[in-house]
Amino acid sequence: xxxxxxxxxxxxxxxxxxxxxxxxxxxxxxxxxxxxxxxxxxxxxxxxxxxxxxxxxxxxxxxxxxxxxxxxxxxxxxxxxxxxxxxxxxxxxxxxxxxxxxxxxxxxxxxxxxxxxxxxxxxxxxxxxxxxxxxxxxxxxxxxxxxxxxxxxxxxxxxxxxxxxxxxxxxxxxxxxxxxxxxxxxxxxx
Amino acid sequence: xxxxxxxxxxxxxxxxxxxxxxxxxxxxxxxxxxxxxxxxxxxxxxxxxxxxxxxxxxxxxxxxxxxxxxxxxxxxxxxxxxxxxxxxxxxxxxxxxxxxxxxxxxxxxxxxxxxxxxxxxxxxxxxxxxxxxxxxxxxxxxxxxxxxxxxx
Lengths: 190, 152
Fold this sequence. Notes:
Helices cover 32% and strands 38% of the residues of chain A. By secondary structure, chain A is of the alpha+beta class.
């Protein structure tokens, strides 16, 4: 019996571990639906781990080893760590409100998230909603003031389910979110 | 059964085994390593039709036999993308089956998915139909050869 148990346990581990590791997989989803009968539909489902592995290997102008270089910003112009620390420690509330004929902009902090809403008016009006957890902003900070750590941000984004970006306009709708679904079910239902 | 019939039966079985074993082994090897599939169908008069089904065992062998310069050239041309492709292949091998990219427009449908340790690329456009099935193991093998060519 002891020998049988000795064999059974590794066998069970072999069966369970792959399932467990798949269950822990986090996915970044991007959906773009252009309106109209000829509108383009784009579906991108990327395991966060895959994005994390690829990101440091990509090198282009302004992007190296997962770091975004903000060329338009000199190190002395804005103190990003202080700005983000101030945001993090601030109470929930509305910080920016712009009401013009063309658009309404709201930037507020709510339940540990920075929420940005842009509501355009007019013929080609667009509604944009961006939701960023404060931890993500914090993770983006680097030692340099004019650089943002996209890789660290991605790692933090992947920790929690949620909608990150929604864009609704006459022309298209965009959704970017994170969850633990591969997107297979949705594709199968199509 | 007479002794003669028994000897005949044993001899027949031995011959069958001798013939069947390599076929079974080859079948298992091909099934295990997968098949690289490339299909291109251009529509319209004079359109090309390409059909390639290459067992990955042969891809592996070809990788070993091909001159090093072939891979060195590829290394030079795609140097900046090789680390990204390597990282992608490693992670894809660990990922569950999924549709990675799907683009549907009025004139083109593109689908890139991972299915059974194979990367599938399907493109259906007005002018052509493309199907590529690339077992991840083979892609990794080719990439390893390119990386080694750079080192040597």
